[in-house]
Every structure is written in C-alpha cells, then in structure tokens.
Amino acid sequence: MRKFVLAGAVAFASLSLAACDVDQTEEGEMPEVDVDGGNMPEFDVEGPEVNVDTGTETVEVPTLDVDVDGPDDAAGEPVTGDE
Length: 83
Fold this sequence. Notes:
Layout lengths: L1 H17 L65
C-alpha cells in the first residue's frame, strides 16, 4: 500500500512540475577569473627497445592439382539456368 501512495505522490509532483511555465527574466553572466602562475605536469617516458631485422625467407607453397569434369556437349555455351 505504501508503494502505491509513494508512486502516486511522485506522479502528482511530476505532473505539477510539467505544468509550470518558466520565462527567463534576466541574462546570465560568467564571472571574470584571473589566473596567474601554475605548472604543467612533466613526464619522463622510456619506451621499450625494439630490434627489427630484415632478411630473405624461403616459403614452400604446395602445388594443387585440380581436375574438373564438365559436360562435353555444353563446351563453350554459357550457363543460363534454363533447362
């Protein structure tokens, strides 16, 4: 029961605030700020040492033997899908 009352109060407050009409009566202005001094942080970073060598490697590539059997009577004719 308590949950229903709380939910009803929240719904009523939401509807009441949604019905408000707000008009701006004066322009806002940012304050003037004077900043002197300060210090940016400094970092000392050392990256890893990387050695890159160039050279020639021989890679064996297998040869493929592919036999394709096709119909002999349709040699040179395009396939249209109509049979």
